[in-house]
Write a structure and sequence with these properties.
Blueprint lengths: L2 E5 L4 E8 L2 E9 L4 H15 L9 E5 L5 H18 L2 E5 L1 H5 L8 E9 L2 E8 L4 E9 H6 L5 E4 L14 H7 L20 H9 L1
Parallel strand pairs: 1-4, 4-5, 6-9
Antiparallel strand pairs: 1-2, 2-3, 6-7, 7-8
């Protein structure tokens, strides 16, 4: 199987390409701004380095949230466009589950994304990526009160007590390898909370 993996949900852009189930291209870099202008050139470089064409892809894996509203929209739009234009299977993946591929000696892993105002997007997974607690928006202090030394906290954000994720692309690809996928038109961002504009509209109502 040949695949394209896209994650633009946080301050790191992750683009990976696999040929015959082996990673032939991996880009994972901190990007402070202008994410939208960088994604397609990175994909183009990856396709060329992998000696394939976009038409040779079998599946597109897209991390559709939670995370940065802008970043999520960029990645989802790119994935939907490629999948629709070339009639490729598209498979959505949680950004928190991707972070949970980080290797740890502890029993459980708790990925976190800063959601501001003392809140985080978080879930709890075991080492096989089984969901122990589904992804949700939760107060950080409330979350930490429920955890003990069996739990490893990981985050790209500067959250006290967390370690930097070391993602394993193939681990999450193999977990979702046989997913049916979704129609590109029905793929939606997974924000897990309202945008600021939507929150303001709700307050007005």
């Amino acid at each position: 199987m040949n695949f394209l993996f896209i994650d633009t949900t946080c301050s790191y852009i992750t683009i990976s390409i696999g040929v015959n189930n082996k990673i032939t291209f991996f880009y994972h870099e901190y990007v402070e701004k202008d994410i939208a202008s960088k994604v397609l050139p990175i994909i183009k470089d990856g396709i060329e380095q992998s000696n394939i064409t976009l038409n040779d892809l079998n599946k597109i894996f897209i991390v559709n949230g939670p995370g940065s509203f802008t970043g999520i929209r960029v990645g989802v739009t790119v994935a939907k466009t490629i999948a629709w234009a070339l009639n490729k299977t598209i498979i959505p993946i949680s950004s928190l589950e991707l972070m949970a591929t980080t290797d740890t000696e502890k029993k459980y892993i708790v990925p976190m994304i800063d959601a501001r105002r003392g809140n985080v997007f978080s879930g709890i997974y075991d080492k096989n990526l089984k969901v122990i607690k589904k992804d949700s928006l939760i107060n950080l202090n409330e979350l930490k009160e429920k955890l003990n030394d069996d739990y490893e906290l990981v985050s790209y954000d500067e959250i006290t007590g967390s370690v930097n994720p070391k993602i394993d692309i193939l681990k999450i690809i193999y977990k979702h390898l046989n997913d049916n996928g979704v129609n590109p038109h029905s793929l939606n961002p997974n924000y897990l909370k309202l945008t600021e504009a939507e929150e303001k509209m709700e307050r007005k109502d």
